[in-house]
Amino acid sequence: MDIPQDLAPAPALAAEPPPYLLTRPLRQTCPVVFASPHSGRLYPPNFVAAARLDPVALRKSEDGFVDELFAAAPDLGAPLLAATFPRVFCDVNREPWELDPGMFDGPLPAWVNTASPRVGAGLGTIARVVATGEAVYRRKLSFAEAEDRIRRYWQPYHAALAALIAETRDEFGTCLLIDCHSMPTHPAQAGNPPDFVLGDAHGTACAPRATRLAEEVLAGLGYRVRRNDPYAGGYVTRHYGRPREGVHALQVEVARPLYMDEARIERLPRMAALQADITRLIDALAKADWSALR
Questions:
Q1: Strands (E), the chain
Q2: Are 249 and 241 in contact (CB under 8 A)?
Q3: How confident is the model at residue 276 (pLDDT cuts 50, 70, 90)?
């Protein structure tokens, strides 16, 4: 069945923080848009109360401080969109209705995607587990709770992102979306872990020129860069990356040990140096000639 088309975002309550922050340059001078979907750290009190995990454990799935790493984008002529709510509460790098039926106290509508690999791993739009594999909730949820989050958080974030992409393409004839993330330490990569992973859905979501430029800048700064392994791009990259339509999407994953204490979710002193290097990457992307991407 088709998903009903009348599921419009519900208005946010006046006392609530906005679901995203959009920082625009005084004048957008390049066809590049930066987005940080997983760095939100405003945890709704009722969500924390329903969780069986302590606040630090809940934050294990958070792309901590990524919005700060890319904060120079507006000063260099590109907008920066950042979710304010946490990934474990509602994940905007998933389809809007990827839900695990085992999490809910009743049957889900037939149009909900209950069979994706992400749902099977417990990491759907509403996550069942945190990144370390621990269960989030002490009780079953109602579908109404999931629907409320999707309407009030997922949909406004994507409405803002889609509008940014559309207006950028209208202005410049093309748009390059940089989807900004961080990646945890992975035991399997202990011998030679990458510092950055660039995901372009194996060349289908982004022009090779854009991926290559990002790779060259980061490698030139001394970082170990890998493409599409182990992160080739999530929903945002694959959904918005449509090179034939003039929209290119590149997911950038930053290794957390470069800048943060993963156990405590705290910034390390060396974060400033990484932020400076990422600013150099932003500057290179902002100054590049992207007319060939139109």
A1: 20-23, 32-36, 80-83, 175-183, 196-199, 225-227, 247-255, 260-261, 266-267
A2: yes
A3: very high
